[in-house]
Amino acid sequence: MKDKMTWEETIKYIRTQPAFKDLVEKAYFEEDLLLNVERFKHSEEFIETLQFLKQYQPNAKNILDIGSGNGISSVALALEGYNVVAIEPDSSDTIGAGAIRKLKVHYNLPNLEVFEAFAEELQLSDENFDIVYARQCMHHAYDLEKFVAEASRVIKKNGLFITIRDHVIFDKKDREWFLENHPLQKYYGGENAFTPTEYKAAIQKAGLKVEKEIKYFDNVINYFPSTKNEVLNMFQMAKYKAILHLNKKIGVLSKIPFLQEMYFKKIGLTKESVYDEKKVPGRMYSYLCIKK
């Protein structure tokens, strides 16, 4: 095997590996494109995203979907009745524009157009979209400022720029930790991330106002595939495991609330420690921005 695969080769490869079965399913990388769309349409992430779109742009009709990948978001938005333009630089039938065109035909979507281009080189008319939506792609920008500037250029005045699930790092060491822990980085080498400061600086420079910065534990949009209930119960589960460990040490005395609290304090078990996004490599943020 050569040193690095293409993104398409990587996805085809991990589909054959049992160790990646869960990732393939939860990241919507299944070979069955229709299955990916149907599962994404009903996901907590997409349901939450739609709520934000309707809250910030209730009368929106035209959406530009940047970095559309295999088309799950573009198709889901088109099925919701939006006029969607999908931008995807990869031409493949597996995870690129070819896949989106297949889905367009299957779902008979005249309100979906597909173009092969990078976000930094849109070649679209100024102020043409009510919403520019970018899912899991801004962190891949080869020029972050140009990426956001192009998005801003094609948004109508008072329109929405919404970025979903972008990897965030806080310093060089944190970036290295993220890349070391990313399951696919060693295969294709295309992962990247920026700091919140860098994202927000590029957004503001492009004439956009950050209305909402959604941090990792703020919303299921970012921590999916974990569910809301799983995240809400994380603290209770951590306490339960700590009590089990305490029981091994002191037996039935572990049932005494005072001793439990003493033990929690000793091991530093707090809500803040459990919901510490710095313990999550490459944690994801989302941004809701309005064009001034």
User: Which segments are poorly predicted (pLDDT under 50) over 5 or more consecutive residues?
Assistant: none
- What is the straight-line distance between the termini? 50 Å
The CATH architecture assignment of the largest domain turns out to be: 3-Layer(aba) Sandwich
Work out the strand percent: 15-25%
Helical stretch tally: 15
Radius of gyration: 21 Å
β-strand number: 7
CATH class type of the largest domain: Alpha Beta
Proportion of helical residues: 40-55%
* Overall pLDDT metric: 96
Q: And the CATH topology of the largest domain?
A: Rossmann fold
Largest sheet entry: 7 strands, mixed
Query: Which structural class do you get from the secondary structure elements?
Result: alpha/beta
Which characteristics define this entry?
292 residues, alpha/beta, Rossmann fold, seven-stranded mixed β-sheet, 7 strands, 45% helix, globular, Class I SAM-dependent methyltransferase, SAM-dependent_MTases_sf, methyltransferase activity, transferase, Diverse_substrate_MTase
Can you describe what's shown?
- By secondary structure, the protein is an alpha/beta fold.
- It has 2 domains: 7-225 and 279-291, Rossmann fold (3-Layer(aba) Sandwich), CATH 3.40.50; 228-274.
- It has 15 helices and 7 strands.
- The protein has helices at residues 7-14, 21-26, 33-41, 44-56, 72-79, 97-107, 144-154, 172-181, 185-188, 196-205, 220-223, 228-232, 234-250, 257-267, 271-274, and strands at 62-66, 83-87, 112-115, 129-135, 155-167, 208-214, 284-291.
- It has a 7-stranded mixed beta sheet, with helices on both faces.
- Helix 7 links the parallel strand 4 (129-135) and strand 5 (155-167).
- Helix 3 (33-41) crosses helix 5 (72-79), helix 5 (72-79) runs parallel beside helix 6 and helix 7 crosses helix 10 (196-205).
- The longest helix is centred in the C-terminal third of the chain and has 17 residues, at 234-250.
- The protein is globular.
- The termini are far apart.
- The model has no long low-confidence stretch (mean pLDDT 96).
- Pfam families: Methyltransf_23.
- Keywords: Methyltransferase, Transferase.
- GO terms for molecular function: methyltransferase activity.
- This is Class I SAM-dependent methyltransferase.
